[in-house]
Design brief:
By secondary structure, the chain is mainly α. Helices cover 50% and strands 7% of the residues.
């Protein structure tokens, strides 16, 4: 029982998804549901009602009639138009109807085939090491909750996992072969993998192709199973309606057929040919007309979706990233020149793909917040000043820390300067120890300073703002009173910091 429970749990994880788009759900969810409903309807008619009724000779008893109906149901019938008087002697010339017993199984098989790409997508994206489903669910939870602490926690979870995925398997940029591979990846869409930063995006395109092949292929597969030219069935139906043809006389789903069977009586074999009516074909025809048009519609929108995602994947995504960041004021217009490196070197095709999937399933606000947090992390890692609390190695605006390098990770001020805006700390004093940032000027207003250690406004001040920053680059942990920041001269024993 434990093994069975584990298998069912794994199957449930594979079949519950929110990591694709609406067109994928049209294939795997709604089409599958329709096919299962049709299979149930046909099965009910077959096993509850009378799927076939044959006109038997007058000498047949009720038992003979029941036997005739059952033997004609299981042994197939053949169609002969009423304008043809003579029955062909050779069985090869008879248009046999062999499919009606298997309609429920055909429909169930089609439903399974429509769900297989979804299961493959779940298995393949799981191999990337990224919990894409968990990211989307975290984005949905972020959208639904109004608690600031919960939102911060969910956003940190998303940023951490996306950053780990984007940076953990990134190949070395140095070396001739590395540059050749990088060029090949840019020019050729057939080279992909986690180390190239395009595994998820190209795997997703492959799944799209499977959906297309499935919807188109099933139309031709039904031609084989039904023994008719089903691939043009819908076109012929429309043309027939335009001509005013009688829909009752259907060649592909005939209502009236003939059945040959033999009965052995007292050592003699008696051959009978009876005329049978298949009322179930009345339902089958309408169902398969709808299925034909549905498959064509699904194939067309899936092809359009594939082309859209192909364009998004191979086309430069920098414009999309800029639009998302600027839409919610995450970057200034003057800093958009940095986004090309952010998109190409950090996010890559998979990073942009992740934000698009999260935007589709969780909302553009969530994806913009995620992109903004990743942008700030990238700027922090590059040592470039960002907005409201980023660390700058060369001096910037809105919360930058300017200064030259000292010892033990110190940042020492090279020249005098007053406090900037939004919490800027300008270098005026010498560097302290253990990652302290010292400055002779005063701090600005309401701005976080993203730093690796303590921040003092004087080299010798004892009261500091203690910063405990993780790699995520989020805010202070245990921030002391901002009023304790000293802007006066330091203690005598620390004057040598100047």
């Amino acid at each position: 029982m434990e093994k069975l429970s584990a298998v069912l749990t794994s199957l449930s994880e594979l079949t519950s998804h929110s990591d694709d788009d609406q067109i994928d759900r049209l294939n795997r969810r709604y089409t599958t549901f329709l096919l299962v409903v049709f299979a149930i309807l046909v099965s009910t008619k077959q096993y509850v009602g009378d799927p076939i009724t044959c006109w038997v000779p007058a000498q047949f008893t009720d038992n003979h009639e029941q036997y005739t109906n059952k033997v004609c149901w299981v042994s197939n019938t053949y169609y002969l138009p009423f304008d043809r008087r003579k029955i062909p002697e050779e069985e090869e010339l008879r248009q046999k109807i062999c499919y009606y017993q298997w309609i429920p199984m055909i429909l169930i098989t089609e439903a399974v085939l429509f769900y297989i790409p979804c299961i493959l997508w779940a298995m393949l994206n799981k191999r990337s090491g990224l919990n894409l489903k968990g990211l989307v669910e975290a984005g949905v939870s972020w959208q639904q909750t109004q608690v600031i602490e919960a939102r911060d926690r969910m956003l940190r979870y998303m940023v951490h996992h996306v950053d780990m995925y984007l940076t953990s398997r990134r190949p070395s940029e140095s070396g001739c072969w590395a540059r050749i591979k990088k060029t090949l990846v840019k020019k050729c869409i057939f080279i992909f993998g986690t180390s190239y930063g395009n595994y998820l995006s190209y795997t997703y395109l492959s799944i799209k192709l499977l959906y297309i092949a499935n919807s188109v292929g099933q139309i031709f597969m039904l031609s084989v199973f039904l023994g008719t030219d089903y691939h043009v069935f819908g076109i012929n139906v429309v043309l027939g309606l335009l001509r005013g043809d009688d829909w009752q006389a259907s060649i592909r789903f005939p209502r009236v057929t003939l059945c040959d069977f033999e009965v052995r009586t007292l050592g003699n074999v008696h051959r009978h040919t009876v005329q049978c009516v298949l009322p179930i074909n009345l339902f089958n025809e309408k169902i398969f007309v709808f299925i034909w048009f549905w498959f064509v519609f699904v194939a067309m929108v899936t092809i359009a979706s594939f082309l859209q995602w192909l364009y998004r994947t191979v086309h430069n995504s920098n414009a999309y990233v800029i639009a998302e960041l600027m839409a919610f004021d995450r970057i200034a217009r003057e800093t958009t020149n940095m986004t090309s490196k952010f998109t190409g070197q950090y996010l890559g095709q998979d990073g942009v793909f992740l934000t698009r999937i999260i935007a589709i399933n969780s909302g553009h606000l969530v994806s913009a917040e995620l992109l903004g947090a990743l942008w700030e992390m990238y700027m922090h890692q590059q040592g470039i000043g960002g907005a409201d609390g980023d660390v700058s190695s060369g001096g910037g605006e809105d919360g930058d820390v300017s200064g030259g390098g000292g010892e033990d990770g110190d940042v020492s001020g090279g020249g005098g300067g007053g406090g900037g805006e939004d919490g800027d700390v300008s270098g005026g004093g010498g560097g302290g120890e253990d990652g302290d940032v010292s400055g002779g000027g005063g701090g600005g207003e309401d701005g976080d300073v993203s730093s690796g250690g303590d921040i003092c406004c004087n080299a010798g001040a004892s009261d500091c703002i203690t910063g405990d920053f993780s790699d995520d680059g989020y805010g202070f942990s245990g921030v002391s009173d901002l009023n304790n920041v000293s802007s006066g001269d330091g203690d005598d024993d620390n004057d040598d910091n100047d």
